[in-house]
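> @MW can you paste both from yesterday?
MW: sure, first one:
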Amino acid sequence: MKTPTPTPHPTPAELDLLRILWHLGPTDAKQVYETLRLERADASYATVLRQLQLMHGKGMLTRDESQRPQRYAPALAQEKLQTSLLKDLISKVFSGSGKALVLTALKEHVSADERWEIEKILRRNDNAKS
């Protein structure tokens, strides 16, 4: 029986590239580089290409070799990776308490509009459970 592949834990640089690929969809290294350069002027094409190749080797990306230039895409859906990383963060940083995470986030990182949306979602979830 094949063991499941563990969800990768990307570095900050890998997360930058994944975020770009989730936004753009499957694309070539040049487009990833050009998008990253808008955020970081010090980015180099060679580094971006090498990072994409390494991420492909780690199983974080798929690569379509039937086209030139080759196109890269995330191997994992954004929501799935976010959920995995958040579970890990809750476990390691907040001693398994989702409540502690939410309270910390609500202290500084949520606008009034976002707070209203969160309350609406919580009410909807409560109504669905009833």
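MW: second:
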Amino acid sequence: MYIKSPPTWLTLLCLSFGFLNLTNALYGSSSPVVQLTASNFKSKVLNSNGVVLVEFFAPWCGHCKALTPTWEKVASVLKGVATVAAIDADAHQSAAQDYGIQGFPTIKVFVPGKPPVDYQGARDAKSIANFAYKQTCSHVEDVPATVLISFG
């Protein structure tokens, strides 16, 4: 049995789409970074009970690509303390528009009950994690003295 090969142009077209698909995602399935979409943004970020750091990125952005290993390190460092997530703002433009994203990468910190805060600090893991810890501490409510006495 003879199977005819597809035309060369079709093969190249299929390969290019496959390559584009691989380059669109900065974070793979094994990454500690939560991958957001327009459809899961509300459940993963807005309805979260904890602090969520969100990177709005574009897959073609060189600064976004450079931030990827740092963002993954932040996700590992903050595991159990805060959620570290990312959303492709090109693919999910509605989410980017909702938060006035004008440049990439943009990092916003979402604390329950408060408006999102733009992170303007250094783009290294220690600085980002320290900022997140401060936001987490501001989210913790004071424990009433009567509760503390009951633990005594």
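> thanks! The chain has one domain: 30-139.
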